[in-house]
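Troubleshooting: if your tokenizer reports a length mismatch, compare your output against this known-good record of 402 residues.
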Amino acid sequence: MELADVDALTSPAGRSALAAVAAAGDADPLVLGQRLRAEGHEAALVAAAMTQARLRGRARAKLGPRADRLLLTAPGAEQATRAAVAAGHAHRFAAAGLDRVADLGCGIGADALALLDAGLSVLAVDADPLTAAVAAHNLADAVAAGRAEVRCADVTAGVVDELGAGDGAWFDPARRTSSGRRVFDPEAVSPPLSFVLATADRVPATGAKLAPGLPHALVPAGAEAQWTSVDGDVVECALWTGPLARPGVHRSARLLRGGRELRLDDTAASRTDVGDVGAYLHEPDGAVIRAGLVGAVVAELDGRLVDETIAYVTTDSPATSPFARAFRVEDVMPFGLKALRSRLRALDVGTLTVKKRGTAVDPDDLRRRLGLRGRGSATIVLTRLRGRQSVLLVSDVAAPPA
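Known-good structure output:
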């Protein structure tokens, strides 16, 4: 998508082409393209409208029904904050009693829309002209109502100096290179973490969407880092400062599962006992692990760790936690290809799910080397037990009803 496409798609002819593509539903793209061109739509406009339809279709799972009304770029849709996650961001700012939030690195406007939904005014800023133009379209109603302003600008070039009492700042730093490669160093993103923290010194209500791999040592005193997972997939670490951070909470986990929200933080009781594998194994959610809260799951389950460095919890009796997935342990053996192959073939296994933690074994390579041809399925866990490489044969325990 190019800057000229924004003007074209928002013109009367562009809106007509978008509506025609949307009305066609799942029609064959080649047939649809030919029909629309035959009806008088320009070929370039038809191609742009069909690209938008594809992007909107893929974005619905992330952005909800609103995706059908937005202009999208491929990288913008991929990097946009999920609607449910963005709503949580907006709630923090609204609960802090703020009037306006500067969305610095606004992308296509997903967080800005959530902030507007929460009753806040928004200053949306992005350095990329195409992205800023797309955001301006997506926020057009709020701009017309005087509740939003969209700018194409470098967020480090004086924008923060305009913020005053009643304002907050939200950063979504660019975490990819121009070639699309992910950047993991917090100081190599744009803007860097040091600029975010410097902004927090001037604008106390500052938040930032960071990569899940943020080291705990980089979370400042008095700030809260919250790792969020959506249906088991860890999507971000949000850093909250000033009135946006909960008093006494330094690290927390937020789990979103099928519309349900769960939270755990480092004020919860914690234990780090280590012991032998019992009858049940529990796999904490990735956000819990990233937040360093596995000990809280150990305490909740009245269990123990299988190894002091591994985030698996075990219990002797049935137990459940909303923060962990439970398995029944069917067998435990030292890791060895020959013995494992023999055990799985005896069970007539053909489809093997491999879970791992604390081992360099590649699951795909292991499946190839095992050469299973059975009719059944099984799940194994490759991990360390008190420092020894081991294999656990497990079966899923049904989760309790929500």
